[in-house]
Amino acid sequence: MTPRAKDELAGTAVHLASARKAEVTALLQFAGGLRVVKGRIVIDADVDRESVATRICNALKDLCGCAPDVRVLPSVGGRRRYVVHVAHQAEDVARWTGLIDRWGRPVRGMPPQIVGGSTADVEAVWRGAFLARGSLSLAGRTRGLEVECPGMEAALALTGAARRLGASVKARQLRGADRITVRDADTISLLLNRIGAQQTRAAWQSHRDRASTTIVDTALVDSNQRRAERSAAATAIRAERALEILGDKAPDHFVEVARLRIQHPDLSLDDLGRLADPPMTKNAIAGRLRRLCGMADRATLQAGITDTSAAIDAG
Question: What is the pTM of this model?
Answer without folding.
Answer: 0.65
